[in-house]
Specification:
By secondary structure, the chain is an alpha+beta fold. It has one domain. It contains three helices and four strands.
């Protein structure tokens, strides 16, 4: 699990990611928080814990995206050689998904 400071940064990145707001009034942070609180998506912490069990390397970025009505977490890792790898997780179930570059 990432350190508390790294986790805070990841949360800020994930919640600051542009996501279309319902009705144009709700900002990204409020929308992500509402989705998590309503049980529509899992928390970033849960997704990161699952992803770190399945992947080697260091997590450097996390985003929450709306892909045609499906909420998806995009996590980017960097390995010891500096190569980056993106992994995608269904935000509702936490299950890995194939992504754009898988």
């Amino acid at each position: 699990m990432p350190s508390p400071i790294l986790f805070s940064m990841l949360v800020a990145v994930a919640l600051a990611t542009p996501v279309p707001a319902f009705g144009g009034e709700e900002d990204d942070y409020e929308q992500a928080l509402r989705l998590k609180d309503s049980g529509d998506i899992l928390s970033l912490q849960v997704i990161v814990e699952r992803a770190e069990r399945d992947n080697t390397g260091r997590l450097i970025e996390a985003e929450l995206e709306d892909e045609d009505g499906d909420w998806v977490y995009e996590l980017e890792f960097v390995d010891e050689r500096g190569h980056t790898l993106k992994r995608y997780y269904d935000a509702r179930t936490g299950e890995p998904r194939t992504g754009k570059d898988d």
